[in-house]
Structure formats: structure tokens, C-alpha cells
Specification:
alpha+beta, Nucleoside Triphosphate Pyrophosphohydrolase, 3 domains, eight-stranded mixed beta sheet
């Protein structure tokens, strides 16, 4: 027998997440895609809790794109002075630019945003999963958007992925980094879409780019995450302008506590060997 958890007489019932066993699809409105690029799935869901108890069903919309997931890539190089430079693409994002046409959004945030600064990124196609993988797709995006030829095995992971819009989307962004020689860059070839007709790719000093994230000049979450993760991967602390081996002992202990440094007992020279 189906047992529904009702709202208590004393107020709304708050249920511990520890009791949740599943979220079940009990219905879906099907139809044609809302556009050639994405489709809207309107689902009827319910929660299943322990002891065969269920929530009331509710409507939930999911926007589903044509890709399995996405990958963002931080291209970087180091100059003779030990400064880290990261590649950013300046292009167009109509969805962000058109905020100006929404009075509430324009009131909250009146910036024009005709162009948008972010990392190289692209969709991971379903066929990639059985063929070139995430790194192979990342290498293709690097050539397409930045003009650099890199091999899949040269890319490194920058940790776990993050969800871009968990309120209505399934897409997860996977982070990669690759060292390049800025002298070997070519004109980005693009993919033939008008969105990639407008844009350029330039290197910026890592601390400067991170400061743009704080100030709002860069407003892209994946870019901020990718830049900070690259800094941690390299053992560089942009807030101090110091490499990990240059940190005083008391600061080194603090970054270890935050999970940003080597574990206790490990040396601090590993990264210097990797990037120096």
C-alpha cells in the first residue's frame, strides 16, 4: 500500500536526507525538441523514503542538451621569470548578452556583455565516450578554439567535475589543463558556427585573471574554478604571489589544512620539478 508523507499540523514537514532512497519518474510530457540544440523534459517526480513511504508527486523541468557532458581546458605556459600565463577565449554568449532585455536582470546587473571571457570549452559528444574520451575531445576543442595542436595524453585532470546549472540541467563540466608553447599557436579554425566567427584567444597572467574573477570582469564560474585549480595543481598561491615551497611554515600548514598543499610528511619540491 502506498504511504504518503503529509505536511504536519505544526508546519511543513522537513525530512532528513538520510531517509531518501530514490527519486522516481512517475510521468513525463513528451514532444518535439524546443529547439535544434536543447529539449525540455517535463517530468512528474516523487521521492521514495525508507519504509516504503513516498512524497507527493511534483512537476520538474530538465533542460537536456545534445552532449553527454562538457570539458573546460586551461592552456598555460610559464615565462622565464616564473610567471604563469593562462589562455582565455573572448567570444559571444547571446544568453548572457540578452539579460539586458529583462528589466529585472538589467536592474540588478546593467553591464553590456557584448563579449564574454572564458576558458576553452566544448561539449563531449556521446560518441566520444567509446572512442577519443574526454581528453581527446579536449584536444579537439583546444585546436578549434585556441589554435594549438596538443595530444590527448598531454592533458591532465584538474580534479572532479562540477555541475553548471543543477537547478534545471544535467550537464557536468570536467576540467583539464595542458602546457603549451605560445609561439606554436595558429589561427583558431572554429567549427563554422556564427558563434565562433567572433572571438580571439589571448594569454593573461594567472594572478591577473583570478583578480578579474573577483572583480567581475570575468563572470564565468567554470573559468574561475579552472584557474584556481590550475594554481593549486602547479603549487602556486596567487593570493600571496608565492610558490608552495616559498611559503613560510605557518602558511604552509594552513594550506595543508584546506587541502591545497601536499599531505603531512610529503615534500614540497614535486611541483617545482614538474613546471620549473
Amino acid at each position: 500500500m502506498l504511504k504518503i508523507l503529509d505536511v504536519s499540523l505544526e508546519g511543513e514537514l522537513v525530512i532528513s536526507p538520510d531517509l531518501l532512497q530514490d527519486i522516481e519518474v512517475v510521468g513525463e510530457e513528451t514532444g518535439e525538441p524546443v529547439s535544434p540544440f536543447v529539449r525540455l523534459r517535463r517530468l512528474q517526480l516523487r521521492h521514495r523514503y525508507k519504509d516504503d513511504q513516498y512524497s507527493h508527486s511534483y512537476t520538474f523541468d530538465i533542460v537536456e542538451g545534445p552532449f553527454a557532458d562538457a570539458v573546460a581546458v586551461v592552456l598555460y605556459h610559464m615565462d622565464r621569470d616564473g610567471k604563469v600565463w593562462v589562455g582565455l577565449r573572448r567570444g559571444v554568449r547571446p544568453s548572457i548578452y540578452l539579460r539586458k532585455d529583462n528589466p529585472a536582470k538589467a536592474h540588478l546587473d546593467p553591464l553590456p556583455r557584448l563579449t564574454y571571457l572564458e576558458l576553452v570549452a566544448g561539449g563531449i559528444e556521446y560518441g566520444d565516450l567509446a572512442t577519443i574520451g574526454i581528453n581527446g575531445r579536449a584536444a579537439l576543442e583546444v585546436k578549434e578554439e585556441a589554435g594549438y595542436e596538443v595530444k590527448a595524453e598531454e592533458l591532465v585532470s584538474l580534479g572532479g567535475g562540477t555541475f553548471s546549472s543543477p537547478g534545471f540541467g544535467m550537464e557536468k563540466i570536467h576540467y583539464r589543463a595542458v602546457a603549451v608553447d605560445p609561439r606554436e599557436g595558429m589561427e583558431p579554425e572554429g567549427d563554422g558556427h556564427p558563434l565562433e566567427e567572433v572571438g580571439d584567444f589571448q594569454f593573461h597572467e594567472l594572478s591577473q585573471a583570478i583578480s578579474w574573477c573577483r572583480s567581475g570582469q570575468i563572470e564565468d564560474a567554470k573559468t574561475e574554478i579552472g584557474l584556481y585549480r590550475l594554481a593549486n595543481y602547479l603549487g602556486y598561491h596567487p593570493e600571496f604571489g608565492l610558490w608552495r615551497h616559498e611559503l613560510p611554515p605557518e602558511l604552509l600548514e594552513r594550506v595543508r589544512f584546506l587541502g591545497l598543499g601536499p599531505a603531512r610528511g610529503e615534500g614540497t619540491g614535486e611541483k617545482n620539478e614538474r613546471v620549473g
